[in-house]
């Protein structure tokens, strides 16, 4: 029994399970059938809607016209859209079957459709024109005239007009339409009005904030204009003062020239005249003698003669001349005719007796000084007239008769030669003009810009925090640092949040902030925070003048200070090239490398004296650095030839080795110690003090071109300088726009400790420059990652901007200074050495061999081309395993010797020689 009951229980359980599963399958099947029925019904309904819609336009035929008449009779003018409305209502019903909201919306839509028909009937007055309600007439009018609202809307319109007139009908229609719209859209008009009011208030607050910001901007612009006017006024005052000073100096020089160019007096030499010698006029005048020429006679009875007042001798030529310190004046004196045996003197009183003996005078200047002792000084500038020391002659021991004879007349051009020698001596003694740092007024000030407002920054910070909270990352915004081009938001994650999780959300953060790109610094060095750098909506330009006027640059104790730019916090970044000590600058075209190099050069020009810092510039692009030709800091003119550039780097290596030998001789370790020892070293008479060594900065604007022409020599020189030249005071600045491993080789990168990365196209290039990603996310236009020696991570800096006009103005100012010869003999020697190096070693870079101009593969390439009877550069590259440039040069040489013809576009060149002709050519050359 138990077993039978157990069997019944198990069988009943199986029956219930099978029934349930069968019921489920039937429900699923019915649901599928219902969906299939709905889908088929929608398709049929869609086709019917298209047919009804086309019937309204008379393109279905007689049946369509009959159907169209029925539609217009039922719906009136709204028959044009009735098929579409019916299809949409049914489709909405099928999609939301069993949903009471859908039923409500369908009914509200039908009421709204009827109200549209009532409005059409009101406009056409189809029902209103009937004196008595007649549904048949209403149907006929709507069907034939295709107007009105049809029998349904027309009947409602007639009823409303009959009882409420037109105004009441319009109000009822508006009420029903509004209610239907609210039910269909589920939007409340009150909420819309409330939201509109909130938006208006928010817009008012934004307008007020914008007006305050604009007022602040206008105030700053006004202050800027005021400061510019003050600066302009100060500059005008300074220029006016300089012009007045120059005018005064020119007037003084002109007055002095007039004085010095006056008719000179003849040289008079009087000897033997003592204080007891009496000068008196001769009593009788010899025949044939002029009245103004007299013989000087004397008497030796001065002791018995009474003392008379000293007679002051004057001359019309010197009445208006104030003379003192005339030993500084040098002039050529005119000499009279050689026939004069005696030199006439001015007529004096016969009773005049002098109390002291005459001294021997070499020229009329000293006599004039004796005759006019109370005159004022002629202001003679030291730099124009050299000083001369003159020793007066000893007085005569006994009074003798003075025999005054005229000097011999000049022979040939001795006076002109003397003047030339004096001019040469004056130029040699003339001190060199002092170097003047260019004024900052040559540079443009940065324009005041507020950047993003604080409200926008706070809104961005809030969106950033909400975005991270959405992904389950709880953070706290601790600080916001707004820089010229980017703003850094410092986040402090909660305990247990991994840094990698925030870094992995970079794309989601960029999407939610609608930013062009972001950079995550995780973590910030020295802080327990993560930095997310977001580009500003309004960038600010960093002007070089603002950096040069900053205290950081003015107080920076280095001759080769480099005003880099401003960091994310807006602080001025100034670096010392001597501590870098070599720097690599790389980035894509147009990212700001050349402007960065100009900024570096201008920083040195505004900081260093030409005797302390010298520059060697290598510019294979020719147009970037050639503007600096002529400045006193240049050691040699700007190098544009790649082969000569390689020689310049080789000279740098030689100079480094020579300096180290001198350091060893003087027992010092670096350039600073050498210069200090030179200054403190005593100098014996007749010996010259050794010259101080200047710091040398070698700037290469495009390394890629040099590495293509002569890679071996360039890489070797760069590596040797980078390894050893720091203590010798030689520093390398290398820039390239192609940061690939064949340009920035492993050796070069390993020996360049300081690097600057501008915007690049890929993370591979960024890793080539910095050994890490990040440069591919920069914005360009001076946005850089500054990674000098000593930094644990690169710092994001907005580089300074200096225009070409500002550079030209500063260079012109330096050229206009009278600094003598810009390229001294030392620089000429350097240039000659570089030329010699280039002529001796330049052929190796181009791949030529021996002493001729032909490539070492010339003969092999010619034989191969003649054998194959086809010539192309690509074929030479593959066969000889050489680069494109060298293969192209070989092909040009073959064309020059007539082995192949000229190029014909993309076709291979024609082979013009046979093997026998080529052998004959080799014998001839």
UniProtKB/TrEMBL annotation:
Enumerate the residue ranges of region (Disordered).
1-30, 201-243, 384-415
Q: Does the keyword rRNA-binding apply?
A: no
Top-level taxon in the UniProt lineage:
Bacteria
Q: Matching PROSITE patterns, A to Z?
A: FTSK
InterPro entries in the record: AAA+_ATPase, FtsK/SpoIIIE/SftA, FtsK_4TM, FtsK_alpha, FtsK_dom, Ftsk_gamma, P-loop_NTPase, WH-like_DNA-bd_sf
> Locate the FtsK domain: which residues?
570-767
Q: Which GO terms describe its molecular function?
A: ATP binding; DNA binding
The record's Pfam families line, in alphabetical order, gives: FtsK_4TM (PF13491), FtsK_alpha (PF17854), FtsK_gamma (PF09397), FtsK_SpoIIIE (PF01580)
Q: Which residues form a coiled coil?
A: none
Subcellular location(s): the record lists: Cell membrane
GO CC annotations on file: plasma membrane
Q: Where do Basic residues bias regions lie? A: 14-26
* Record keyword Transferase present: no
Complex and partners: Homohexamer. Forms a ring that surrounds DNA.
Function in brief: Essential cell division protein that coordinates cell division and chromosome segregation. The N-terminus is involved in assembly of the cell-division machinery. The C-terminus functions as a DNA motor that moves dsDNA in an ATP-dependent manner towards the dif recombination site, which is located within the replication terminus region. Required for activation of the Xer recombinase, allowing activation of chromosome unlinking by recombination.
User: What protein family is recorded?
Assistant: Belongs to the FtsK/SpoIIIE/SftA family.
This protein is called: DNA translocase FtsK
- Source organism: Waltera intestinalis
